């Protein structure tokens, strides 16, 4: 009996130290994981035809614009982080910009109050789109196949039609009232669209065809540009031809930092993703978190306290680096972060009301989607792209076949007043003409021992950063497989509101009681789905394991 107990003990210990066997799709050369199977297959097919990760990025992005209008787009923006097979890294910012006509108080009434819905619904919420500029920039620098080859599958898909899934059916139903209210009862999405229907996007196919024939200029200075401007202006929005002509995607240096044996490469401002992820990871690094156990009270407590402090800094310091000075090095400095955690004890919560941004002297951004790609050459690409809310501003332009984004809501309309994700902004993220709104998108690539190890990211507004964090920790600290790490229940804290959001019904009663006893507020009711993570893990034998989030229709494809 004693012997048996000992063997069982040994088994438990080894389970904790050994990496779990893969439970997601495994391929040996290349993989694309995205929100829709059509898009993943189109991306993987480009790779099979000899294209690289960047070619696949362009094809996948465009396929999502067709198959996943919920978040995929040509009318929004995004961020790409890449790592080449020789270890070189970089990032592309194709985030939307505020129009030239934007003003600091554009969403406030005469008495200084935020006008409900103005930065949320319809043309007034729309910022200058960056997606088309982004993919052309990627093609110019890294593309190996002709652009026409990369856009053609999306055109074919739009013409052939997309089969509506069960989940898509329910989101369309959920948002239909809002879409009808904003876009009127004659628009394309007013039709009765239901599960298993094949929906053809003819207008969108025409728009994409024009882009294929006329290139980047079609969207920023051609027929499409004029149609977009006329439409936006007829609906009371602000975008002009000059805004479109002036738009440029920008190459940026990613944020890079170490966590134990890992090197994390993530998105820099105007996304808060990389810096905030870095702050949280560096704050928890000194603790032996794997010993506390996955999703145990002590683990949740430590992560929560680090998140609280990091989001307080995020909301104060971060904004568009072309407009505000960002003390990145200091924000990621070991001793600064140690001092941020100095008041932390496992005995009780540090109330958010007593936490502010750190003391740094400086001179002086509901729906998004993520995809991860690894090509047969060993290049990796991590992309998060968005129109902000589900179906963006809910304003559908029939002529172009697109929903307009509502990215303007990612600005801080009024310091101290929460946006749609409950994020409270400050001066650094106030509205200014041509400025990029602060984002939480966190496309991330992780190296282990100098080699490509993980490609990861997710939608989820303010919960993006903490979902990426938990996915990395689940594999590295808690030895889960990629798919298990994505499936695992997630929680989130963002300083304000001062509560721990938890996926409803997925955390044990005991853990919740322990945290409540300590003084933490648990919020299982009001929580949105916390992320839809799409990730790829390079396993020790070089094979690739997918983590495709079953919270959505997310799927992997590869070979
Ligand atoms: O850039 C951002 O942080 C937001 N616009 C992302 C929106 C998002 O993730 C919506 N998904 N649930």
TrEMBL record:
One Pfam family recorded for the sequence: G_glu_transpept
Binding site for L-glutamate: 95, 386-388, 410, 439-440, 461
Keywords: Acyltransferase, Glutathione biosynthesis, Hydrolase, Signal, Transferase, Zymogen
Keyword Cytoplasm: no
Gene Ontology molecular functions: glutathione hydrolase activity; leukotriene C4 gamma-glutamyl transferase activity
Known pathway: Sulfur metabolism; glutathione metabolism
A biological process term (GO) from this entry: glutathione biosynthetic process
PTM per Swiss-Prot/TrEMBL: Cleaved by autocatalysis into a large and a small subunit.
Reaction(s) the record says it catalyses: an S-substituted glutathione + H2O = an S-substituted L-cysteinylglycine + L-glutamate; glutathione + H2O = L-cysteinylglycine + L-glutamate; an N-terminal (5-L-glutamyl)-[peptide] + an alpha-amino acid = 5-L-glutamyl amino acid + an N-terminal L-alpha-aminoacyl-[peptide]
Active site, UniProt feature: 368 (nucleophile)
Stretch forming the signal peptide: 1-20
Family to which the UniProt record says this protein belongs: Belongs to the gamma-glutamyltransferase family.
Subunit structure: This enzyme consists of two polypeptide chains, which are synthesized in precursor form from a single polypeptide.
PANTHER family on file: GLUTATHIONE HYDROLASE, GLUTATHIONE HYDROLASE PROENZYME
Name recorded for this polypeptide: Glutathione hydrolase proenzyme
